Structure formats: C-alpha cells, structure tokens
Amino acid sequence: xxxxxxxxxxxxxxxxxxxxxxxxxxxxxxxxxxxxxxxxxxxxxxxxxxxxxxxxxxxxxxxxxxxxxxxxxxxxxxxxxxxxxxxxxxxxxxxxxxxxxxxxxxxxxxxxxxxxxxxxxxxxxxxxxxxxxxxxxxxxxx
Length: 142
Hints:
Elements: H1 9-12, H2 21-37, E1 61-66, E2 72-74, E3 77-79, H3 81-92, E4 99-104, H4 110-122, E5 128-130
Parallel strand pairs: 1-4, 4-5
Antiparallel strand pairs: 1-2, 2-3
C-alpha cells in the first residue's frame, strides 16, 4: 500500500497571525540609533546683557548708524557693541520709550547689520524704525 500523506485540518489553513518580534527588534535598534545620533544639548546661547547705563544722551528719536567700515554710532557718536546695548537698555527702561531708528550705510556688512537688529530687538526697545530704505529701491537694477 502506498503511503499517502494526509494533511491535518490545522495545516490546511493559512497562518493568519503575523510575527511582530522582528519588527519590534528593528524599531528598538532604530530608536537606539536616533538616540546616539541626536547630539546632547550641551551648547549655550550667549545673550549679551547690559553692564551699565547709557552714557550718551537719549532723545525722543535716536539713530543707530553703521558706516561702511562696520562702526556703530548712536546719534552720531561712535561706540562699541556693549555700549550700544547699554544705550538701548537705558532707552527701553524709560517710562516713555524713545524711537530708535536704524540706518545702515549701503556698504555696511549684512552680518553686522543683522546682529545689530537682533541686539536692538533683544534689548526690549519697542519703537523701532528702518530709515533710508528708499535708497535701496533700485537694488541690483543698475
């Protein structure tokens, strides 16, 4: 008699359950890789703080100017970045804040201008204006 192999009823049905153990293993490995790749937040953000009061006069309208050599001026008087911060902080702490106008030279560097704008913003000055933008209306149209 030839041997006939009969399949049992349980073997005839397809397997309907998925083995998720390898999926969990892969997800854990990816999680560990992301934890190792993401740097630990050990950097510090240096925020300049005023270290005194402003020594120049504060008027109802003040002008911060940057010349072509990237020197800073407060109402026409040259000063460094820390002294500008002190002036701005003094102006921001006044009961009636004066207007601070920003007027960079056309040849002033973008880096110095953007850092000065950020300094003005961080000082707490609320009345801020850009002056002389009409000079740049034809930018690149020469």
